[in-house]
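Notes from hallway chat w/ T.B., transcribed later so I don't forget. T.B. wanted the structure written out for a chain they're using in a teaching module, and asked if we could keep both sequence and structure tokens in one place. Agreed to drop them here.
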Amino acid sequence: MSAMLVHMNQKPDSKPAVFVAGFDHQRERENFARFSSLVDQPNINPTQTPGAERQPQFFSENIGSLSSTLGGVMSENIMVRDTSDKVLQTVVYKWSR
């Protein structure tokens, strides 16, 4: 206890974070897929013939595919600290495997 109290008035070495964010990919992946398909729904052209070449839907197919590719990532967290001469960013990924 004494050793801890000795350092009580010492200033921290790092600046406080100016930005902290996290994303729980494992929990939100299904919600994102459902949301992205709703966002893209107005862009679907029902008169297109099946099998015809078309551009993929941005959210539900392009970004949704990226979400599936990153399915092994449980979560991402980012912390940004701004010092006078540089910006420090720390990104931590948690993998399910």
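Follow-up for T.B.: The radius of gyration is 22 Å. Might be a good example for the class.
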